Amino acid sequence: MDSAGQDINLNSPNKGLLSDSMTEVPVDAAVAAQTPAVEGLTEAEEEELRAELTKVEEEIVTLRQVLAAKERHCGELRRKLGLSALEGLRQNLSKSWHDVQVSNAYKKTQETLSQAGQKTSAALSTMGSAISRKLGDMRNSATFKSLEDRVGTIKSKVVGGRENGSDSLPSPAESGDKPLPDHTPF
Q1: Mean pLDDT over residues 21-46, rounded?
Q2: Phi, psi at residue 179, to the nearest 5°?
Q3: Model-level pTM?
Q4: Among 29, 50, 172, 181, fewest CB within 10 Å belongs to which?
């Protein structure tokens, strides 16, 4: 029995199953063209659109062929001139970087970062001035003066011993202070 001419029984327990004898039947292009693609178009309009579609598809194929020929010719010219692909890439990157630099987004970002840098610099300068002022205030305080006097006294004792020709620290008896603990080197 011819599978293409078989009736399909929807009540059959085998519905939805393909038999081994069934084969694919190609759809005729003319039959597919007769089915309306969009409702509301007349046959003349549909035929006109199909003709235009065919024409545009043919133009696309032609343009691809022309573009391929032009690219081959361009490659030959570059080869004859000694221009490498790397040189072309470098030129493309330079042009792209230039395009980025003249873009509005880049300019706005650059301006924003510049302003942020200026504000940060001003804040650090203000903070440095405040620290300097605080250190100046601290140096003029009584506590710092007392510490400075003590360090000066110790320094004069250490330097005083060296000025007398001795490279060692003054002995505990000379200093009048408590003896220094004996530290053994490692």
Answers
A1: 63
A2: -65, 145
A3: 0.30
A4: 181
